[in-house]
Write a structure and sequence with these properties.
Radius of gyration: 19 Å
CATH architecture: Orthogonal Bundle
Largest sheet: none
Organism: Streptomyces malaysiensis
Number of strands: 0
Helix content: over 70%
Low-confidence stretches: 95-101, 190-197
Shape: globular
Number of helices: 9
GO molecular function: DNA-binding transcription factor activity; transcription cis-regulatory region binding
CATH topology: Tetracycline Repressor, domain 2
Protein name: TetR family transcriptional regulator
Strand content: under 5%
InterPro entries: DNA-bd_HTH_TetR-type_CS, Homeodomain-like_sf, HTH-type_TetR-like_transc_reg, HTH_TetR, Tet_transcr_reg_TetR-rel_C_sf, TetR_C_16
Structural class: mainly alpha
Keywords: DNA-binding, Transcription, Transcription regulation
Length: 197
Amino acid sequence: MGTTVSERQHRDARDTRRRLLEAAAALFAERGYERATVRDIADRAGANQALLFRYFGSKSALFGEVIARNGEEQLRTTPPHELLEAALRGLLGPGGKEPGGRALATLLRSVDSGDEIGTAVRAISDGYARVLASLSSADNHELRADLALSWLLGIGMMRVLVGKEPLADADPDEVCALVTAALGTLLDGLPAADGRP
């Protein structure tokens, strides 16, 4: 039995929507929200701008879905004890090669892009913070998680946006080793090397 016209259209619509999301994720990670145009996203996806607006309604709604999709993918597929390193590697790599790894880099490139985007940023940040908080048994585990996430985003900002040397060209393995050791201490609630909590 062959597929009906309706089934083919539905499958084509899903494929077009997926291609638009993938193109948007790549362009937002490369350029940030403001510099990624609707036309460029549609062109990269092999679609037209009208379809982008039909499926997502607006560029900011598309961005929110990209952030949610990429961040949720990383949160869903990464064991909690590996999330710090996975998120950090996403920031240290060239724009992040995997969609989940691009989530924080995309956030960084788009931090000042408006209220709708702020909502998406807060939602995914809350997801990361919840997972990070689960790694700590300390009474102030939520604060520790927010501090860890803030440090990751600060590292990403200095490397990705500012290009601060020597961080901008530092070996990702070395940065990961240093940062995960320090953040592990913070999240585990263990005393620092000097004995202070």
